[in-house]
Amino acid sequence: xxxxxxxxxxxxxxxxxxxxxxxxxxxxxxxxxxxxxxxxxxxxxxxxxxxxxxxxxxxxxxxxxxxxxxxxxxxxxxxxxxxxxxxxxxxxxxxxxxxxxxxxxxxxxxxxxxxxxxxxxxxxxxxxxxxxxxxxxxxxxxxxxxxxxxxxxxxxxxxxxxxxxxxxxxxxxxxxxxxxxxxxxxxxxxxxxxxxxxxxxxxxxxxxxxxxxxxxxxxxxxxxxxxxxxxxxxxxxxxxxxxxxxxxxxxxxxxxxxxxxxxxxxxxxxxxxxxxxxxxxxxxxxxxxxxxxxxxxxxxxxxxxxxxxxxxxxxxxxxxxxxxxxxxxxxxxxxxxxxxxxxxxxxxxxxxxxxxxxxxxxxxxxxxxxxxxxxxxxxxxxxxxxxxxxxxxxxxxxxxxxxxxxxxxxxxxxxxxxxxxxxxxxx
Length: 427
What we know:
This protein is α+β, with helices and mostly antiparallel strands. Helices cover about 15% and strands about 35% of the residues.
């Protein structure tokens, strides 16, 4: 399916003279990264000569893009510190302009910083949890897989809006709890059930947002394809285990049950991702009226065939400590609406037992991660093993093995990774 690429502004140094101690210039570094960016986005920058002030040109380019991606290269050594450098002041100004102008809007400032750049010199540009992975200009090809995975993550952020970058304004409401449940079936079909509780902080602003800006969410898959959302919405509940489907309800308002359907509209879709908006409607199908401190609970669930690989052979071989969608099955929960007071990510894997024999589910058992980035980067915390849930039994325990990760005050990403068993261990 042909899709229109988003536009990003590429901020970088144009210096063609190599820095001291290297034969590679800033310009060469920028060209190398630009090739990666062009595989995903339409890339614009301030390098095209025009008969007008450069600040005006950059301002217009930033305004016409969905994100700014910067390459912070070493330009000025910090006095009395041989290992720390500053980047180009003009580059910092471009980033600061974007952060200042778009601090209340759906805009992202991201990028990479050369090893030796003083992180404190980036100041507010790196505030709010957005990471800037390090690179060494002499070893760009060696670390290319790390940069590609960062950009794949960034691509999802740009498609769905702000993810974990705290400058955006969510003052009208806060997410109190999110319980996200993945059901992973033996045939690769997967469903995702989201139970969300929010608290209204600014009723007037929320009403405006919910009528105009709406509330945005995203459904995604690393393995299969996302069908048209309009078709998924038409699938009846009794077919939800066989066809791609989507259902959503407003369950309660101020702890009083309502159970009206959400007003859902597709905003943007690619093969692997769909950004959609929701509005809350009362039983008369009018916009729900709210007051400060009101609580709202809503749910949406969706599922598609081939969401996850069935056998290990469908995945690439493990590459050192890198954990990505090519080598692992991934289930994720993002704090893309601000901090979540109580976040729970639950995975239920369909069991298979025949003639007293239990089928092996995994070649690599599920493990959790907190943060955002690659496993061998500081952006992720250390991985931690998960145990089969042995809490109070319920009706699902007969059919599923369950794994649960809980986190208070989640402000980035919660992730679980695993590899299915190989073909010879399947029944």
